[in-house]
Specification:
The structure is a single chain. By secondary structure, this protein is α/β, with parallel strands linked by helices. The protein has 14 helices and 18 strands. A hairpin with a 5-residue loop joins β17 and β18 (about 400-405).
Length: about 425
């Protein structure tokens, strides 16, 4: 039997976020890091597979090509439905990549209609009248307006998505969603008759996502943030079960690598620093000047791992990030930090770290690739959208790792993550 649900995620933290919600709803899920080469696909014993791409901010044509490769692999695994997952803040530009990837997947699957909703109420992301809210503020008024790669200044998802697609974009608003699955299906039929190809869907609660999940049963393709995942497993008869999130027992040293510049991660780093625990700051300007900052970070960490966890971070407030980007260029600054933190993560694992927290989507992608991780078994949730995972390292050892999206997690996330893992092992 093939897998039930095949998922394509446009970054690594978003992939674990999605997989986490599927596991909480009772599915056994494996996350693959990028598309396995032909003939090298690992055997998968799971109900759902998530392929994690690093395609959110690459050129649209590259994102489309990578997504189509992922689709082909998922279809070869027998996926009955395909889920394209993007960020709950709809990170994109007028050129994409959400719209172009959605249309390419629709064409490949031969479908004329799909839905779109980044809603994730558990993390404060809601859609009302087609407008995306982050907490109590519109997306365009949130910290996302300052994102260094995908600044989001328009909160109207119908217009945002319409600028990226050739298909007409419509809306299924909250009054329809409140009417349940049958009302949503009727609205879908009406939109199709009107020539609409993609419908943004309102959702202000988990109940809305459960109604939508039931309504899209049978659609070849759904597109969403990770929130919709809570409403899909029931379509195949799955129910929540602790067994779906079971991981091997943890061991080894503990460490945190943080490259996110989000408001939430800045708060988490500040809380950690104020606790007096050991931390090393990675300065991109020193890296650019040729200093061996990664080596310095590892020397610092080596003297503190026994008393860990140890934090190595480049997280800074938005004004500091803009200043560095002004001197180095946005792309160059980001690449320097990613390469440095990936090297640090490698060194930490070589020094016996087997419980690792990584903060930031781009950072997570660089770290798992540097570690040679090809797949993750999804485990228990730390905070909404962020689970612990188990990876098999190239030497056969198990690494417990969590890949945290920048804007996710509570203020004490770094310490609560390790506390949860200790509780699970007790």
């Amino acid at each position: 039997m093939g897998i039930r649900l095949g998922c394509i995620a446009d970054d690594f933290t978003g992939a674990t976020d999605l997989a986490n919600n599927l596991v909480r709803a009772g599915m056994r899920v494996v996350q693959l890091i990028d598309v396995p080469p032909a003939g090298a696909a690992p055997a998968v014993d799971a109900d759902g597979v998530v392929i994690a791409l690093k395609s959110r901010t690459v050129p649209a044509a590259d994102a489309v090509a990578a997504s189509l490769r992922a689709l082909a692999r998922l279809r070869s695994m027998g996926a009955e439905q395909v889920y394209f997952k993007y960020c709950s803040t709809f990170d994109s530009t007028p050129a994409g990549n959400i719209g172009p990837v959605t249309e390419a997947l629709m064409d490949a699957l031969g479908t004329d209609f799909t839905v779109a909703t980044p809603a994730f109420p558990d993390n404060g992301r809601t859609v009302f009248k087609g407008h995306l809210f982050v907490g109590d503020v519109l997306l365009g008024d949130s910290g996302m307006r300052h994102h260094p790669l995908t600044p989001m200044t328009d909160s109207n998802l119908v217009s945002v998505l319409g600028a990226q697609t050739t298909r007409a974009v419509g809306l299924i608003d909250h009054t329809v969603v409140a009417g349940g699955a049958e009302a949503i299906r009727a609205r879908i039929d009406a939109l199709r008759e009107d020539g609409v190809g993609i419908a943004v869907v309102d959702a202000v609660s988990n109940d809305d996502l459960l109604r939508l999940g039931a309504a899209v049963r049978g659609l070849p393709l759904v597109t969403a943030g990770s929130g919709l995942a809570i409403g899909l497993p029931a379509n195949w008869g799955f129910e929540p079960s602790p067994a779906a999130a079971q991981l091997p027992p943890p061991g080894g040293h503990r460490a945190i690598v943080s490259g996110s510049v989000s408001v939430a991660t800045n708060g988490q780093v500040l809380r950690y620093l104020n606790s007096g625990r050991p931390a090393f700051r990675v300065d991109p300007l020193r890296v650019a000047a040729g200093e061996d900052v990664a080596g310095q970070a590892l020397a610092f960490a080596a003297s503190h791992l026994d008393d860990g966890p140890v934090l190595v971070y480049s997280t800074e407030p938005a004004d500091t990030v803009r200043s560095v980007q002004g001197r180095l260029g946005a792309a160059e600054a980001g690449e320097l930090v990613e390469r440095t933190l990936a090297r640090v993560a490698q060194g930490l694992v070589e020094r016996g770290v087997r419980r690792l927290v990584v903060a930031g989507g781009e950072t997570s992608g660089a770290v798992v690739q540097a570690l040679g991780v090809t797949g993750l078994r999804i485990g228990p949730q730390i905070d909404p959208g962020v689970p612990w995972c188990a990876a098999t390292l190239p030497d056969g050892d198990t690494l417990h790792i969590t890949l945290k999206s920048g804007n996710f997690g509570g203020p004490d996330f770094f310490t609560s993550a390790f506390a949860l893992l200790d509780e699970e092992a007790a």
